[in-house]
Specification:
Shape: globular
Oligomer: single chain
Order of helices and strands: HEEEHEEEEEEEEEHHEE
Number of helices: 4
Distance between the termini: 58 Å
Radius of gyration: 21 Å
Strand content: 35-45%
């Protein structure tokens, strides 16, 4: 019985995170048109095929998002990013094809892979590609001739690529991403989960089920949290 209030508290916390993510996604896609492999009617005579190839990915473990805004509307108010087009979801295969009108865009691509085995381990991978904007969705101050890819090290290890505007004045464009086979343990995240679990399960006094909270803390991500990098293969060509 002593575990119940904490479990309810954790569920409430998870609901807050989920609601926040839903609100953010809704705000980004509120006025945007969802893309597909077939062009929308308003630009079916003048469109470009954008192909995203996912090398070494398992589609069922992968989440993909793209939010872009035409450059003319963005530059009218460069402090407000309001996507014109978007796509999100799990790919059906290792290749995603989207049709969108020719032009120049700012925005971002978010790509993640989560290979989870509950109560054992997880391998997490993230990559963010920004086109003409920074992480605050504001106009970048300096335009580089090529995309700059870097790796950030924290509780979430990921690759971040900063690019110039996305120029789609062509018939097609292929973007390639590769998930590295090599993975490394993220000791800070693994230790944090273990400390959370042990502190509640063993340091908060006698409990009817001392391992219950340990399993809650480590059930989803597992005992070991590993990270594998996602590389943007043609970052030097865009």
């Amino acid at each position: 019985m002593r575990n119940k209030p904490i479990i309810l508290h954790m569920n409430h916390f998870n609901k807050i995170i989920l609601i926040s993510l839903i609100i953010l996604i809704n705000c980004l896609s509120r006025n945007a048109a969802r893309l597909s492999d077939q062009p929308l009617k308003q630009f079916e005579t003048d469109f470009v095929k954008l192909e995203i190839n996912l090398n070494n990915f398992n589609p069922s473990d992968t989440d993909f998002e793209i939010y872009i805004q035409d450059i003319d509307s963005f530059y009218k108010n460069p402090n407000v990013f309001s996507p014109t087009f978007y796509f999100d979801g799990k790919p059906k295969s290792n290749s995603i094809t989207l049709s969108l009108p020719k032009g120049k865009y700012v925005g971002f691509i978010s790509l993640s892979s989560k290979d989870l085995i509950p109560y054992y381990r997880s391998i997490l991978s993230f990559h963010l590609v920004y086109f003409g904007i920074d992480k605050e969705y504001k106009k970048i101050k300096k335009l580089n001739t090529i995309c700059i890819q870097e790796t950030t090290f924290s509780n979430r290890i990921e690759n971040i690529t900063n690019c110039n505007i996305l120029d789609l004045n062509r018939d097609s464009l292929i973007l390639n991403f590769t998930l590295e086979s090599k993975n490394e343990i993220n000791y800070s995240t693994s230790f944090s989960l273990l400390w959370f679990s042990f502190s509640y399960a063993f340091l908060s006094g006698p409990q009817q089920y001392p391992y219950a909270l340990f399993l809650i803390g480590n059930g989803y991500l597992g005992i070991l949290v590993k990270h594998s990098l996602i590389n943007f293969d043609n970052h030097a060509e865009i």
